[in-house]
Structures are given as structure tokens and as C-alpha cells.
Design brief:
Two copies of one chain form a homodimer.
Chain A (H helix, E strand, L loop, with lengths): L6 H14 L5 E5 L1 H10 L8 E5 L10 H7 L4 H10 L5 E4 L3 H12 L9 E9 L2 E6 L9 H19 L5 E5 L10 H12 L4 E6 L11 E3 L2 H28 L1 H9 L1 H10 L8 E4 L4 E4 L6 H16 L2 H15 L2
Parallel strand pairs in A: 1-2, 3-10, 5-8, 6-7, 6-8
Antiparallel strand pairs in A: 4-5, 4-9, 9-10
């Protein structure tokens, strides 16, 4: 039910993904009448792939996390997360209120042992052959060096299991690459990572290195990570809208833009955050994938695909095992 | 002498700017032989506009700030800053080592009364008619809410005096726009700004709002500001290099790119950080402008122009007056 447009976006995405993955079952949590009306319009043959779980409530996009947690236990969001907790679902995908999703996931699923706080992570496609896992994107606005260390471990496991990178290069985001740069938090986290076996820690990287091929996993606190991702998205949107404005600014430009359309489309596609839609909430005893609230149906498909990948790769168990090994081996 | 290419870049920029501003005197601090050899190649008529101050030392780009401060008191950087302190120069412009420039400026010039820490600020052109002043870009990696408040005041004065904006809209960078969002630091700074008369505080903005037209001044700590700016620059560079790659990827693309060249050039220009080269160090008893180390000669001109604007507008005195008024009026 969540997101700016709700089932108008999410149901068509489910139908598309169900056709692509005939072996996957979908439990749609929400208002049965609304969901059924959208399903009726579809041409899905195998209706046994989809089951509706009626929920009398929905979390509003502007609702506070504490209010959602207290008053919306019958909501589509809470129901979906509880299905994961009860192991009736392998993963939860939502385009709803991020704060509420974080609070409810934390409350119902709990963090893995050894993990103090879950993180929001996204894998951003930089080139056709390189993706970077950036975390935390805003799950926690306060995080100390121990938390940054845990993020690094989780990011490393994700890059390995989802992208199949062996020994992913893990870096800490900082204001400079020299050891003396930064605040105590990153300096201490750097020490923890240097001492950790099984983590290929490569040192500090700067903001521009998110878009280079220096690291596979880039770790930072939720405040900085959120700002870094949103700043880049803001610039991307500005470029696309400038491109549009320029293309319509004059008769000559209109013609030029028409001619260069295939080229311009490639750039716009490159800059479209839709293609990496789906931030994952990791560090929990279950899989939760968060789609942009304003995602298109196509973008919501990416979020579902991400959930399928994580479930197939059993990401939470892998993180749990890795963290346990590292904690035991730690001095 | 600073920057990746030193006088090769800085001297031609001085010559260009001197021709444009015949009433401005330039004191060139550095190795007299090197500077003279570059000047000899130029065709500047009025040589009285330029005076060379010979300095036997230069700060290396990778030198630590503390080492520079201790061992490089005869350097071009130290000499230039001391000329400002002695009021023999109206402003210092450098493409050198940022950390050393910060440390030396702080040491020789001192902060204005009421200002605890200087900040690095840049005005980023968003559209033809809108610029945003973003600070701090990395002068301090630790800053509390009081420091954020001082940044806001300084940014507001800059936007007024440099861009001529009356009542500039001042915002705090945060992970969300709702009052409950963020850490204690931004929440407390928001309270200080809400209570301050003479500051048009408009609330929280998110990373993407840097590139919208929501605010004229956006305030954040040096860690986040540095990462936000560099992330955006990294994305901009990626787009430009992708555009180049695509334009050369096939015979057809080559032709398309040639035809659409004027359009593509506009995009590349839009994304070129050169056009806002020149971060200013503000909050000091003198004007210091920092150019990118890898700036082109054209970009270094922008840094000099920024110094001229700040000197003409007497920015330090304006900040001092505004801070004093606000501190007196404060409850």
C-alpha cells in the first residue's frame, strides 16, 4: 500500500516479476478490495503465484515511526514484516514510509547477534561492469567506529554474495585519503578494519571515489551517506532537466536533440536512479528491501529482484556467520 | 607556487585578471626566477600592476599542516597570508595545500571575534540565475551546533554581500525535512537559527536540495559538506567521461556526437566544477581564497575574481558586524 502511488505501481511490478519468476510466491499485504481490483485488470495466468493477505490498516507516508509502531500493528507494513519474522515469507519489499519501515523491522525482526544497528545499503551501478555498495544511507544518524566496522563487514558479505566479488575492496568514506585525515570516528574504524582478518580493507576514499572504481564497498555513517547519495541524485536530476530545457530552448537545439536522441537517452538512463532502486535494510534476522517512495513500476521491479537475490543467497545467515567468526577471532 | 602545476597556471591567470582590472595590484609571492621567467613570456603592458615578493620556500602539496606551520614560515603561502595580516594585501589567493593553508590562515590571521572556527565555503552555480553557498566544505571535521550557527551567519552575510541577495534563505542540511529528523547537532542548530533575528532560516533541506532552488545558503559540518560536494563532482566527471566514451563507441555515435556538439558542450560546461572554482576561507580577520589544486588557468581566474569581490565588499568586516549584533541580541 506504500509509496506515493501505492498499488498503482506495486501491483503491476509484482505481476511482471511473477511472470519472470514462475517459481516464486507473492504474498500481497494490504486492502483486499484495492489489490483485487488491480489484479483483475492483469492478465496473469497462474493466479496461484499470488495470495492476498488482507490488512485493515496502512502506514501513512508522513506518519512518525513511533506512532506507526504503536498504532499500526494491523497495517500492511507490520503484517509483511511479521510474515518474515514467522518465516512465512522469505523477504519483505516496501515502497512505504522509510522511518516506519526501519522502526518496525527493528522491532519485529531484531538485529543479528553481533550487530548493534541495521543499515540501509544500496548497490549503485557506476559502469556496466562495476557496482559500489554504499552504506549507511540513513538508518542511523549517529554511529560510532564499532558500528562503522559492523557496516563494513555487512557490506563485504553483500558484495560477495550478491555481486559474486571475491575479497571485495572495502573503504571508509572520509574528507581525504591520508591516514591523518578525518575525525576520531573514522580513524578508529580504520584501525578496527586494519586489524580484521577476512576483510580487504583498502583505506580511506573521498566523495568523488564513489563514482570511480576504487572500492566495491564504501562505508560511512547514515548522515553522510544519506547526504552523499541524495546530493548525487539531485545533480543527476538537474542534468536531465537541463538537458530537456536545452533541447527545447531553440529551433536549432530541437533538431540537434532529435538527431542525438539515442546518445542523450543513454546519458539519461545512466543518470536514472531507478536502475538501482531498492535499498536493503541489513543486519536484521530477515530480509527487508526498501523501494523509493516515488519509484516507477519498473523501478519497483528492481527492488523485488533485489529481495529475490538476497533470499536466494541467504544474506542474513551469511552476515551472521561472518560477524561471529570475526568477533571470535578479534583480539 | 602551489597547485599541481604551480606558476604555469597561476601566472597566466594573474596576467589575464590584471588586464581586466587595471586598478588592481598583484603581489606575487614565490620564487623570483620562476615567476620572472613566466612574466617575461607575457605581453602585459602595465608591469607596475605586478610586484614579485621573493620567497625562498614553498609548501609541498603533501606536506602535513603542522610541518608546514613549523618549517615553512618563509614559504610563498606563509608570506602571502602575512601580507594580508599586515594589511599590505587585501586578499590571499592560493592553489596550494588546503590543510596547510587552513592552518596558516588560522595561525596568522586569527578568527573574527565571535567566530570559533573558520569555514570553507563555495558558491555553486545551479542555474543561470541561482547560486547556492554551501559550507563547511571541510575546514573542520568536528563541529557542534554553535559552530553550525556561526556558519549560517557567515553564509548569510556572504550571499548578501557577494550575490546581492536580500534576506538569503538559510537552510541546514539534514537526512529529512521534518523537524524530528537528524541528530542532536542539527536539531540544536535549528533551534539557535529559529531564535536568531536577521537570519531567514527556512528549516532543513536534503542532499538533493543543493541542486534545487530551495535555499541560498546551505549549512552542514565539514565532513558532510566535503563528501556532498566531492560526490557531486565525482558524478559530474563520470557523466562527462561517459559522454565521451559513448561519443566514440561507434561510427554512428561519432557522427551523432559531432552534430549535437553544441548541445553536448553546454552539458559538459554545466557540469564543469571550474566554473565555481574558488572556495573561500571565511570567519578570519582577512580574505583567503582557495583554488582547486588541479585548476586550469581559466579556473584560477575565478578564484582571483572571488577574492576581488570579497575585498570590494569588505566581507570580513560585514561578518564581524553581523556576528556582534546577533550575539548582543541573543537571549
Amino acid at each position: 500500500m506504500g509509496g506515493d502511488l501505492g498499488p498503482l505501481i506495486t501491483i503491476p511490478a509484482v505481476i511482471t516479476t511473477a511472470k519472470k519468476h514462475p517459481n516464486i510466491q507473492f504474498l500481497l499485504c494490504g486492502d483486499i478490495d484495492v489489490i483485487q481490483s488491480y489484479l483483475d485488470k492483469s492478465q496473469l495466468q497462474n493466479s496461484e503465484q499470488i495470495e492476498i493477505i488482507h490488512c485493515p490498516q496502512a502506514v501513512a507516508m508522513d506518519e512518525s515511526p513511533s506512532s506507526a509502531l504503536r498504532h499500526k500493528q494491523q497495517s500492511s507494513m507490520a503484517t509483511c514484516i511479521k510474515l518474515v519474522e514467522q518465516e512465512k515469507a522469505a523477504a519483505c519489499v516496501s515502497a512505504g514510509n522509510t522511518g516506519a519501515l526501519l522502526a518496525m523491522s527493528n522491532y519485529y525482526l531484531k538485529t543479528l547477534s553481533g550487530i548493534d544497528r541495521p543499515a540501509l545499503v544500496s548497490s549503485i551501478p557506476i559502469t556496466d561492469s562495476h557496482r559500489v555498495f554504499l552504506l549507511d544511507l540513513g538508518a542511523n544518524v549517529n554511529s560510532d567506529s564499532e558500528i562503522l566496522f559492523q557496516y563494513a563487514v555487512m557490506g563485504s558479505v553483500l558484495a560477495e554474495s550478491i555481486e559474486g566479488i571475491s575479497e571485495p575492496r572495502v573503504a571508509l568514506l572520509n574528507v581525504g585519503t591520508e591516514q591523518m585525515k578525518g575525525n576520531d570516528k573514522v580513524k578508529n574504524a580504520a584501525q578496527l578494519l586494519t586489524d580484521a582478518p577476512d576483510i580487504s580493507y583498502i583505506g580511506f576514499v573521498e566523495g568523488n571515489d564513489i563514482f570511480s572504481n576504487k572500492a566495491d564497498v564504501i562505508v560511512t555513517d547514515g548522515f553522510t551517506g544519506n547526504v552523499a547519495l541524495k546530493s548525487s541524485e539531485g545533480l543527476a536530476k538537474l542534468v536531465v532537466s537541463e538537458l530537456k530545457r536545452l533541447s527545447e530552448a531553440s529551433w536549432l537545439n530541437k533538431v540537434l536533440a532529435k538527431i542525438a536522441l539515442p546518445l542523450l537517452k543513454s546519458i539519461v538512463k545512466q543518470m536514472n536512479p531507478d536502475q538501482y532502486n531498492g535499498a536493503s535494510l541489513i543486519g536484521l534476522r530477515g530480509i527487508v528491501v526498501k523501494s523509493h517512495g516515488n519509484a516507477s513500476s519498473e523501478a519497483f521491479c528492481y527492488a523485488i529482484e533485489e529481495a529475490i537475490r538476497q533470499a536466494t543467497q541467504q544474506v542474513p545467515i551469511r552476515i551472521k556467520n561472518r560477524i561471529e567468526t570475526l568477533l571470535i577471532e578479534r583480539p
